Amino acid sequence: MIAELRARDPLLFWAGALMILLFVVVTLLSISDNRLILGINPWIKPMKFLASITIFLWTTAWFMPETEPDLVRRALVRWTITSAMLIEIALIIMQAARGTTSHFNESTQFDLAVFNIMGIMITVSTIAMMLFLWILRRDSPSARAGYIWGVRLGVGLFVVASWLGFTMVANSGHAIPGPDGGPGLPFVNWSVEMGDLRTAHFFGMHAMQALPLLGFVLDRTLGDDQPSDFIPTARNVVIASGILWLVVTGALLSIALLGRPVMAL
């Protein structure tokens, strides 16, 4: 699978491999660092972003052949998201090394500039993924209709969830109604006492992996031929699942906005 991923898109593959290498480095740094930022080790945030960015880059790399023959727009997408993610993670690691927060940090002009650049990188990357969604449009071979629709809907929900990230910017933090920090779930650190906007953001973004995988499985079980009105096609099940995923993402956002933790579900 690794060789196949590298063949599908070498640039995104090697960018993801670099993220894994950095993940190992910051994990080792976390072992010997006794500092705390908002109650947790400063390297936890870079670790979370390195894992998330690796999944994002490698998932996009896997989907890239579906954009052929639109090679010019395809190159624009891959170079834009690679550049944006490298700048984003470099700034997050730098702030962790400085012993301060990377997000919502307006304590100095420098920290504010860092946060603004990070916001620009995420915006640019999200716009690139909107272009990616556009070039994913094509005829759906019936044998792969579930998978192709899973890719489209997964990327679409990823874009929606990316824009949801700006609710955190408007709130100047993750938590509602109090400040960030305090008890949270292991590693992800979602608040167990207040609403946390990261929950809907996380759930929506990972439709990009779940829906194509669902479509892949359904193509091999249901197929896209409808033998009777009582047996749905792979494509229709994936579309219904995408709508349900969007509803759940909206529900998670609403719960967070009401100030209730995900543990209340």
Question: What do these coordinates show?
Answer:
By secondary structure, the protein is mostly helical. Helices cover 67% and strands 2% of the residues. It contains nine helices and two strands. It has helices spanning 2-8, 10-31, 44-63, 71-98, 109-135, 145-171, 198-205, 207-221, 234-257; strands at 175-176, 195-196. It has a two-stranded antiparallel ribbon with strand order 1-2. Helix 8 (207-221) packs antiparallel against helix 9. The radius of gyration is 20 Å and the shape is globular. The two termini are 37 Å apart. 40% of the residues are buried.
Topology:
Layout: H1 2-8, H2 10-31, H3 44-63, H4 71-98, H5 109-135, H6 145-171, E1 175-176, E2 195-196, H7 198-205, H8 207-221, H9 234-257
Antiparallel strand pairs: 1-2
Helix pairs in contact: 1-2, 1-3, 2-3, 2-4, 3-4, 4-5, 5-6, 6-7, 6-8, 6-9, 7-9, 8-9
